[in-house]
Design a protein that fits this description.
By secondary structure, the chain is mainly alpha-helical. The chain is about 65% helix and about 10% strand. The protein has a domain of about 80 residues: Winged helix-like DNA-binding domain superfamily/Winged helix DNA-binding domain (Arc Repressor Mutant, subunit A, Orthogonal Bundle). Helix 1 packs across helix 5, helix 2 crosses helix 4 and helix 2 packs across helix 5.
Length: about 160
Amino acid sequence: MTRSAAPGREASGAAAGLDPVAIANRLRPVVVHLNRHLRRELHALGVGSSQVSLLASIHDRPGIGVGELAANEGTSAPSVCNHIDRLEASGLVTRTRAGDDRRRVGLTCTADGARVLRAVRSRRTAWLAARLRDLPEDQLRAIDAAMAGLSALVERSAG
């Protein structure tokens, strides 16, 4: 028995007869392999995926504190501090005491940190683009059409 969508709303994939578990089982290994290949692009730059994630968050939110950064990344403050120590030693971030509250430290991405982020994004984009160019047009269009749904998955998990 198929449920119908409420007026004004489209039926969900499950209600339309699609099996989310079967799709997840096919999607998961593809995402894992893509992630593995994209992580390999970092090795030449001397940074790890966790460091790049933190660096990007700091770049996007200058002055962010360690606690807030840890909460955003879904990890512990001591773990973030260890990564920040390495990023700071590499000259990619700076710590600055925040005004009156000497306990609060704000993090800022340095010019070298921004350069590393640009290089990471450039290498990853080049890797993906090279593979996308080799696909037949129908597969490229299918991937393009899937972007909205894949983006919605990421946005839901972030909330």
